[in-house]
Amino acid sequence: MSTNIDLDDLLAAARDAAQHAYVPYSSFRVGAAVLTADGTIITGCNVENASYGLSNCAERTALFSAVAAGHRDLVAIAVTCLDGDPSQPATLVPCGACRQVMVELLPAHAPVIIDQVGATTLDELLPNAFRLS
């Protein structure tokens, strides 16, 4: 990684973002923070909708916001679910759709920090993913 940002700081930014989540249906406040090569941190939270398919996960919100802000050199992501249950890891880890978007926008070796779970990489989270090349 080409920045000096501490990955704990990235996780702290994800926790802050989760405070802004709009979750009247699930009550699961999720936050994500993406780190760019120049050290910029872009955050996102989940936003739910009564038409559930129109909801957006925190990870995708952060990734899409980074791209919308002109960043293409993304190097790491941190994710937290403030209301997740460590005994139920599925409440803490990114969903399949978010994993596929991560594969599209982050390098395969990019650190993925999952609060209460630990650090991993995209290759470990989604082996044999669909890739552009």
What does the model show?
The protein starts with 6 loop residues before the first helix and ends in an 8-residue tail after the last helix. The chain has 133 residues and is α+β, with helices and mostly antiparallel strands. The chain has helices at residues 7-18, 58-68, 96-105, 122-125, and strands at 30-36, 41-45, 74-81, 111-114, 118-121. A 5-stranded mixed sheet has the order 2-1-3-4-5.
Short description:
This protein has 133 residues and is an alpha+beta fold. The chain has four helices and five strands.
Alpha-carbon distance between the two ends: 22 Å
Helix content class? 25-40%
Q: Give the count of helical stretches.
A: 4
Determine Rg (CA atoms, Å). Answer: 14 Å
Number of strands: 5
Major sheet characteristics? 5 strands, mixed
Which terms would index this structure?
133 residues, alpha+beta, 4 helices
Task: Give a topology summary.
Layout: H1 7-18, E1 30-36, E2 41-45, H2 58-68, E3 74-81, H3 96-105, E4 111-114, E5 118-121, H4 122-125
Parallel strand pairs: 3-4
Antiparallel strand pairs: 1-2, 1-3, 4-5
